[in-house]
Amino acid sequence: QDNSFEQFIINYCNEKLQQIFIELTLKEEQEEYIREGIEWTHIEYFNNAIICDLIENNQTGILAMLDEECLRPGTVTDETFLEKLNQVCATHQHFESRMSKCSRFLNDTSLPHSCFRIQHYAGKVMYQVEGFVDKNNDLLYRDLSQAMWKANHSLIKALFPEGNPAKINLKRPPTAGSQFKASVATLMKNLLTKNPNYIRCIKPNDKKAAHIFNEALVCHQIRYLGLLENVRVRRAGYAFRQPYEPCLERYKMLCKQTWPHWRGPARAGVEVLFNELGIPEEEFSFGRSKIFIRNPRTLFKLEDLRKQRLEDLATLIAKIYRGWKCRTRFLLMKKCQVVIASWYRRYS
């Protein structure tokens, strides 16, 4: 019920994960259709980049304001931090506070004076400002690190490498918020180099009980997780896409004109292949560098045909091998018979 600094940075991480989900499943997919010259009607979706910017912007973000309060001289309290937020973020459409003197929230009794509220992608969350400064400023002093590094126990020494006199850094250690922000940035950079598969978990009820399905709760989760937009993009778009070269290499055995070797451009080979197989034109589109297949059943059909063709080819190879083996054995026996007969006639 009471959200403090810990829940704030957890929700910040959730926002970044939602952002990368949007980037990889909605934004990137629609941009790929445009790059490939595929006819496409853009589907609108909520991009939570504006919320991420509210939190992590280097000049006006909440974490930047928090670090500035922790570093500035003079009396620093949670109230002065909230006052600074009210000055910088008062006009932001996803930030709410009673102290901001904004007419929308002056009479909002659900929002205490010592709190601020952020409208996250999953809904509004209210944060108690008390403890933000102390928790963000939770630093380990240099002399303590040096004392722990001098311990005889190897594990303790390894846990405090910053205490090594040879690595003394006179700069002030980074705050907890800065460290978490850097860790999240590293995680996002790592994820962007991957090809992730997403599993979205829907909570059917708040009671953690079986056989209870709260329709309103499920619908709320489907809306804020962006699943409706994702389904619309998937239904309007193409289920499978692949560059022409690997596509032709995988399915060329299905057409006599492309098997075993196709001498022309890969795209022309794919066109010949799909025309030979009689696939309806509405089931695929040719991009600049990729073939796009609309329906999964078309892909399943290609895979089934390929599987059957592989079996036929395996049977053909086995038949030719058995024929070669039997003919080789027959020729050897015939040669032996001629030799035996000639020697028999010689001595008879």
Automatic annotation (TrEMBL):
SUPFAM superfamilies, per the entry: P-loop containing nucleoside triphosphate hydrolases
GO molecular function per UniProt: actin filament binding; ATP binding; calmodulin binding; microfilament motor activity
Coiled-coil residue windows: none
Top-level taxon: Eukaryota
GO biological process, one term: actin filament organization
Alphabetically ordered keywords of this record: Actin-binding, ATP-binding, Calmodulin-binding, Motor protein, Myosin, Nucleotide-binding, Repeat
Name of the protein: MYO1B protein
